[in-house]
Amino acid sequence: MRVFALMVLAFVEIAAQPNSQVHIFPVRGDIYMLVGAGANVTISVGQDGVLMVDTGAADMADQVLDAIRRIQTGTAINGVEVLRYGAEGHSAMRAIVDTREPGKPIRYIINTDVDLDHRGGNEKIARTGKTFTGGNVAGNLTDATQGAAVFAHEMVLNRMTEAKVPFGALPTDTYHVDFMNLSHYMNGEGVQMIHIPAAHSDGDTIVWFRGSDVISTGDVFSPDRYPMIDLSKGGSIQGTIDALNRILDMTIPEFRLEGGTMVIPGHGHLCDAADVAYYRDMTTIIRDRILAMTKKDMTLEQVKAAKPTFDYDGIYGATRGPWTTDLFIEAVYRSLRKK
What we know:
The protein is of the alpha/beta class. The protein has one domain: Metallo-beta-lactamase, Chain A (4-Layer Sandwich). The protein has helices at residues 2-16, 61-72, 116-119, 122-127, 154-162, 237-250, 273-295, 300-306, 313-316, 325-337; strands spanning 23-28, 31-35, 41-46, 49-53, 82-83, 95-96, 106-110, 131-133, 139-141, 149-153, 173-175, 179-181, 191-196, 204-209, 214-216, 262-264. Strands 1-2-3-4-7-10-11 form a seven-stranded mixed β-sheet. It has a five-stranded mixed β-sheet with strand order 12-13-14-15-16. Strands 5-6 form a two-stranded antiparallel sheet. A hairpin with a 2-residue loop joins strand 3 (41-46) and strand 4. The model is unreliable at 1-19, 78-100 and 134-145 (pLDDT under 50).
């Protein structure tokens, strides 16, 4: 429990200093979580180079690049020992000092959705990377139009194109089926991109690092707030619950739902299966409450007045900011009324 208490204190400190710098949290093996860049950024850093899940906000791109450099040069933790996390009494929560040779370039970026806090750094960060090719196109491409390869579901590319996003920030590779595997091992493990339809949006991707047993979820799961459901981009409450169940199907706990598969959310603290299960249960309960109210033909204002989220507001609620409790209730209500 002491380890998780230290993690909570660390996140409290970060919350008290928003956007001051990017904080580095070792997750497992070559996988790290960067906090403070807008949305959480997941990176795999190893002998094959760097793979990133999301790039954070545009104004944090330099800090993200600096964090990657610090990991690659072994100065990420300034000589302080790093604790690895797991179920109490079962994992080897040993302290290690991370020492690495100067790193290889950023090769792949995966965008989990179209939101600016997840893909705002695309253009600047991709430009610093390299795409290695083979066959009829040998060598590596490092000119102004081709840095790191950027992957996303095709709906993300479509929406970015419609919004007239600069060409250099657009995905270079897309997929339109249920999942897509990176064509080869990256830093010693398989990486799978899985499409999650109609949850936060219709173009969400979660990324599964199969060797490390780490899942990066994007905004499909953010335990510091109620689920963010963007109805204008194809999101829905039922799709969100389906997505959370899908994540749970992929996780294997180490002991009594604790430890085991690590889950890096779009926002908030590092999680495991228990965190996802609690969040899924909360979302399902609120869905059922509002559904019962819609069956009584209650108006949106009547539903809000009934406070269907009241017992969870202390944990997930907000009265200001980009995603408030009222906005969540409205999204659930309108999502259910569409049926």
